Amino acid sequence: MSEELNYSKADIMVVTMARLLKDAENAFMGVASNLPFFAIWLAKELYNPNLVWLNIPGRVNPSPSYAPKSTVHAQLSHKGTASVTLAEIFDMSARGELDVAFLSGIQIDFQGYFNLSHISDGTRIMVQFPGGAGSALICANSRRVILWRTRHDKRTFNEKCQVVTASGNVYKVVTSDVVFKKDGPTLQLESIHPHTTFEEVVENTGFPISPAPFTPEPTNEELGLLREFDPENVREIEFLG
Amino acid sequence: MSEELNYSKADIMVVTMARLLKDAENAFMGVASNLPFFAIWLAKELYNPNLVWLNIPGRVNPSPSYAPKSTVHAQLSHKGTASVTLAEIFDMSARGELDVAFLSGIQIDFQGYFNLSHISDGTRIMVQFPGGAGSALICANSRRVILWRTRHDKRTFNEKCQVVTASGNVYKVVTSDVVFKKDGPTLQLESIHPHTTFEEVVENTGFPISPAPFTPEPTNEELGLLREFDPENVREIEFLG
Amino acid sequence: MGKVNTLEQAGALVNDRDRLAMGGLLLQRIPGAFTRELARQGKRGLKVMKTAANYDFDLLCLAGCVDEIAAGFVSFEAEFGFAPNFRRSVQEGRVKFDENSCYTVIAALRAAAYGVPFMPIANLGESYLASKFKTVNNPYGNGDGDVLTVPAIYPDWAVLHVQKSDEDGNAIIYGPVFEDLIMARAAKKIILTTEKIVPLTEIQEDIDLAAIPGFKVEAVVEIPNGAFPGACQPNYDYSPESVEEYLTIKDNGALAEYLEKNNP
Amino acid sequence: MGKVNTLEQAGALVNDRDRLAMGGLLLQRIPGAFTRELARQGKRGLKVMKTAANYDFDLLCLAGCVDEIAAGFVSFEAEFGFAPNFRRSVQEGRVKFDENSCYTVIAALRAAAYGVPFMPIANLGESYLASKFKTVNNPYGNGDGDVLTVPAIYPDWAVLHVQKSDEDGNAIIYGPVFEDLIMARAAKKIILTTEKIVPLTEIQEDIDLAAIPGFKVEAVVEIPNGAFPGACQPNYDYSPESVEEYLTIKDNGALAEYLEKNNP
User: Against a cut of 0.90, is the pTM above it?
Assistant: First the structure.
């Protein structure tokens, strides 16, 4: 049914994540975090102007004039309201003062544990991933962690990560196809994006799930704002390559 | 013989301490440290222009345009060359990178241990002193500590401090009347300022000392520079009250 | 945005027995006006900390506001002598002076800022101060001796006086920062007094210096000359005459008169 | 004062097997020109560290200069994909990747900066990273569990690219500092490349930002565009075309040509 939709997978992911920030006190995003960039930007525009936006360059509450491809770009510092270094943002997390943090995993298992480190054969590294950046600290100490992942397949969503880069306070997992919530010790399907079906999701998920309703679709207001701010479709960049 | 001298006790103390900085890499001075202020200033003017001057306001190598009474005054930041906070100066000391530090004690004993804390009767505090400020860290970790004290009597220079605020790498002790050097575990008389005599010093010192030569007197060049920089005689302030 | 309060409202945020890290050092950029407000409001049982203090801690002793002082040094400098009310309060047992080396105050604040229960530090030599602190084994060492540690101290408030803040508390300190930024990070919340409240755009012109983020600030009060009788460079120097005047106060009546006259 | 050197002289200060903390983050204000000089001089066995890196560490892998990388993240961002030479070097066992959480890099540098053998940190959850580090008992606790610690790492050099330095190395970073200042304090000595060497008077105009003191700086080299192909804000942005060009290098010949062409 995807031909009928007037929005992309990136759009519904961004909008879904933005709505999760309606009551957030602050939100942190890291490197290579394009979709969180748009989600935080949209949430501040539409739902939660007092949301404190924290990022790697360490400028609080930037007002980017356009969407950069790099999420440590100077646009993340543009017209910020104060300077808090990355080390100090990690300290905030360590003190339990980070409310929402966006993290991602190349592999994410049924417990919400994730791997950004590597795949090994037990003795040597077969595939080296980028590394978890600040994930281990952030995931264990922030109040609510939102994982996002633009790929939804069994390689990503598996029974158990061989290598755990980070784990902890996972709150939601927003994928290209669904939203999971962390409920007790495991991930539970919360909603399915309207372009796909429960059967397809079962097919692409490496752990057991139960049926769930569709994810609420983006509104015209949300889509209009995103398109106006991002005419070059930088928000699609995580779906490329 | 003091009528014949063309310099004050403050002058000979300043000059003596300045000369100790001829080969110093850096020198730190703290609060209420007027004589060290002049000593570092004079050493940089005359003997060691590359000496790195470190102070509480955290401006490296200030060029004060006059001598303030407070040694945390903005003149200590005037025309500095870089900003290093007090915490970072302490860190330098902790890493063993502070070369010379000026400290003082209200009581100083024969080992060079000193008390800036209090006098107690064993259970309660009878006389509260200001506290040792950074002394405990600085004295234990800097390479060479120069103690100075404008009073030379048996209350100050005693057999053993009841309360030890700080101890460690004491190098010299410059008093109103003499210079001690730390030689092995104890202070030894190194020189006697020309206004007094060995007999008087013995009388005013609470631990055994051996005879020593006179301290070299200030030169006209040294005195001229000091008087020009400090026409208001701020360098006498530690001798007042 | 509702953070701009009167001095009285800001003072009312502080509860009896709260722990305050107070900014500035000796007579430099201290929260002088806020200190007098604490005295006027008759706070009791406060615990205060700073590396090196004089006027503010001495006044809080005189006014009976503090139970405990953690500091490395509490005294005026040469021209004014020791801090008389601090001395008397400690000697008479009304105030506990938890003497620190200045660095152990910093270490305690760093531990709080980093969310850890203690901070390892270099040794403090043979000293009665060293005996206040505990050691731990270096887990990465070869049994080469223990490491001295300082326990975290979490201030309820960092009370800071700055040159410039916007109405949300995004603020800039010009000149020496002393321990203010460590305090701002260690404390649960910040109370700011500022020489001037400026538009955010003026903060943004010096954004690299805007190291106090509004989101931690609970109150912002504009008080020109708010460091009085201390200095706030480059705006004004400390006032020796006013420090002398303060030092003449001998009783509660004179204190009340002083607090009335010097408001803020 | 003799600290102003050519890029070649500054590169020669670094010995094989030295440990380098390299400034900037990803493609922001990295010491790009100095990294290429290390490659041209054929350094071997270097140990490098930073929270999050791509071009500089990837190039050092390609050129065979590094043995060990301590970092939280080594990758380009979305448009360029992973760091290919880093990946290959690690997968082929030529480079040891000591994966950290970014915060543990910071903690290791803080410990070095403070002159202590380790830094306590908050917990890292259930993670293979947590298992790399040892715990100690909290000496001030009530047996309420152990505290995770990170051992100090002392870099021989902090290699930083800045917008402005005087000839003594008194230097200013404008905009995000990333971990540069922690590196400057943790390292034994600093090597600076700077967009511009300016008179001291120009440093003094922004003295509150002059957080790199000349006395720790061993070499200052003026290299306009020295962060290339990275950004140095506000002077210039990173060059996507040049990063793409770098990523086409497949062999030693192409690398030599690239290093020749891009000098500095």
Answer: yes
Q: What's the number of CA atoms in the CB half-sphere (13 Å) around residue D17? A: 0
The Cα of D107 is separated from the nearest Cα of chain B by a number of Å equal to 15
- Yes or no, beta carbons of C91 and B71 under 8 Å apart: no
Q: How many CB atoms lie within 10 A of CB B203?
A: 11
Tell me the C-alpha distance between A112 and A115, whole Å: 10
Over residues C44-66, the pLDDT tens digits come to 999 999 999 999 999 999 999 99
Distance, CA of C32 to CA of C224 (rounded, Å): 11
Asked if C113 lies within 8 A of A91 by C-beta distance, the reply is yes
CATH 3.40.1080.10-classified regions of chain C: 7-117+152-261
Rounded to 5°, the CA angle D46-D50-D52 comes to 125
Quick check: A134 and D237 CB within 8 A? Answer: no
Q: How distant, in Å, are the alpha carbons of A54, A128, A154, B201, D25 from that of A159?
A: 33, 20, 9, 84, 34
DSSP string of chain A?
-GGG-SS-HHHHHHHHHHHTTTT-SEEE--TT-HHHHHHHHHHHHHT-TTPEEE-TT-EES---SS--SSTTSGGGGTT-SEE--HHHHHHHHHTT---EEEEE-SEEETTS-EE-SEEESSSSEEEE----TTHHHHHHHSSEEEEEES--STTTEES--SS--B-S-EEEEEESSEEEEEETTEEEEEEE-TTS-HHHHHHH-SS------BPPPPPHHHHHHHHHH-TT-GGGGGG--
**Distances A14 to A8, A21, A70, A173, A225 between C-alpha atoms, Å:** 10, 11, 17, 12, 12
Sign of CA dihedral D239, D243, D248, D250: positive
Residue B19's nearest CA partner among B37, B40, B50, B33 is B40
Contact B136 C129 (CB under 8 A): yes
Q: CB of A79 within 8 Å of any CB in chain C?
A: yes
H/E run at residue C134:
none
pLDDT along chain B (241 residues), means of 10: 79 98 98 98 98 97 97 97 98 98 97 96 94 98 98 94 96 98 95 98 97 98 98 95 63
ipTM of the complex: 0.97
Q: Which two tokens stand for residue C8?
A: 């009285």
Q: Residue A41: phi, psi to the nearest 5? A: -55, -50
All residues of chain C having their beta carbon less than 8 Å from the beta carbon of residue D138 are 117-118
Using the Cβ of A82 and the Cβ atoms of chain D, whether some distance falls under 8 Å is answered with: no
Distance from CA of B192 to the nearest CA of D (A): 36
Distance CA A21, CA A18 (A): 5
Please report residues of C whose CB lies closer than 8 A to that of A95: 113-115
C155-178 residue pLDDT tens: 999 999 999 999 999 999 999 999
What is the distance between the terminal CA atoms of chain B, rounded to a whole angstrom? Answer: 24
- In CATH terms, the superfamily for domain D7-117+152-261 is Glutaconate Coenzyme A-transferase (3.40.1080.10)
Helix, strand, coil tally for chain C in percent (to 5) = 30, 25, 45
- Sort out which chain C residues have CB atoms less than 8 A from D118's CB and list them: 120, 138-140, 147
Domain boundaries, chain A: 9-239
Which one of C117, C139, C209 has the shortest CB-CB distance to D134?
Answer: C139
Nearest CB partner across the interface for C118, out of D134, D135, D139: D139
**Of the options 3.40.1080.10, 3.40.50.2000, 3.40.50.1100, 3.40.640.10, the CATH number for the domain spanning A9-239:** 3.40.1080.10
| D2–chain A nearest CA distance, Å | 33
C78:B77 CB<8 A: no
Q: How far apart are the first and last CA of chain A?
A: 24
